[in-house]
Amino acid sequence: MIQGNPDLIAEIRDRFEYVDSCPFQGPRVFFENAGGALTLKSVIGTSAKFAAIPDNQGRDNPAAHALVDVINRAKRDMGLFMNASAGQFIAGESGTELLFRMIRTACVNASKGSKVIGSSIEHPASRSAARRWAGIAGLDYVNVQHDNATGMVSADAYAARMTPDVSVATILHASPVTGMGMDVAAISKAIRAVAPDCLIIVDGIQHAAHGQIDIDAYGIDGYAISPYKVFSRHGFGIAWLSDRLGAMPHDKLIDAPETSWEFGTRDTGAYATMSDVAAYFDWLGGRVSDETAPRARIEAAGRAIHAYESHLTNALIHGTGNLPGLAEMAHVTILAGADNPAREGLVSIVVDGMASPEVVAILNEQGIRTHTRKADHYSGNVLTPLGLPDCIRISLCHYNTEQEVARLLAVVNELGNRS
Fold first, then answer.
1. Residue 412's pLDDT is what?
2. Which CATH code for domain 6-41+294-417?
């Protein structure tokens, strides 16, 4: 357990850079983790090490051979971290770009006149790709409406819109606006019960930092993450592809291997940082459990992270010490309900009588970093049906503390005198 273990929390925080200060602002609380998590110190060292190496992979020299070994190890480590026993991992420009590539390939290889299904809760990374390529490929797009009250979409909602001619499906693992996680395994099962050969592609970008990915259990064909949101760095994305999706005709160089998906020389250092991420979860699992097998330790870390982040969000919503929680503040409204078991380390709110950017600015002046989500092309699918022009997103991670939550509650509570 992380909760109630200050020594472990201190150890966790010591493994991340800028955990309590900003190089531009100075001391601050970081509650903008959904926009990009903190970076592991080991990742910074690994990135610098490989940035200095002039050699490329694919040559016949010791350095090139070593770089290939590093990449292959990283792919094995990612398979361990995400529990993928088959398929392949590839690196690309970003998680969004990789979602577009996988969804494009699925759509252009689909049977003419078939359908693509997705949900209104999805981030535009998958939703835009699915709608665009469905149109180009001559496929009908089927929208599954999410539940405004809970901020999520259920397997039953997918099942109600499924037909046997659905050939491609997209699923969002967790919403960066409401913070709610979807039951990917249940949704996938509902899809395959009606259309067993459907290609299913998942946006795991928001979910990944919470440490519970189990690709083998999902029955899917594609899964994408953005490493900068799971303790690595900017500049690349990672995708897992099933053997079936990987073998489909797709963009590649002439005469390249049939399952080759990467373009150009990838950054070995980017791959290597994913070994650092896997090693961190392995380390944490060893600190919160007696497990000895690496995958078992990673699973233990995921359970501990979920439990501790639930503790932090409960403190945020229901209060800590003598401070009232957001649910007890008459001037605050919590999106998707105060008591929602699907919540993953994120609480979005609005403050009566105050524009969200103003609230974010006040919090920032007090050294508390949050973010405004606006009803634009990123978040309008969630906020517009609620009649909201914007909201304040407070996103936590397992290196945050209850004391940091208390600092935010004190400031938001005072806003009741201004709104």
1. 96
2. 3.90.1150.10
Segment 159-177 shows an average pLDDT of 97
Ranges for all domains in the chain classified under CATH 3.40.640.10: 45-278
Q: How confident is the model at residue 87 (pLDDT cuts 50, 70, 90)?
A: very high
pLDDT digits (tens, 9 = 90+) for 92-135: 999 999 999 999 999 999 999 999 999 999 999 999 999 999 99
Give 340-393 pLDDT, tens digit per residue: 999 999 999 999 999 999 999 999 999 999 999 987 888 888 889 888 899 999
Whether this prediction's pTM lies above 0.85 is answered by yes
Ranges in the chain annotated CATH 3.90.1150.10: 6-41+294-417
Region 144-153: what's the mean pLDDT? Answer: 95
CATH 3.40.640.10 fits 45-278, yes or no: yes
Distance between first and last Cα of the chain:
39
What's the confidence (pLDDT) of residue 380? 80
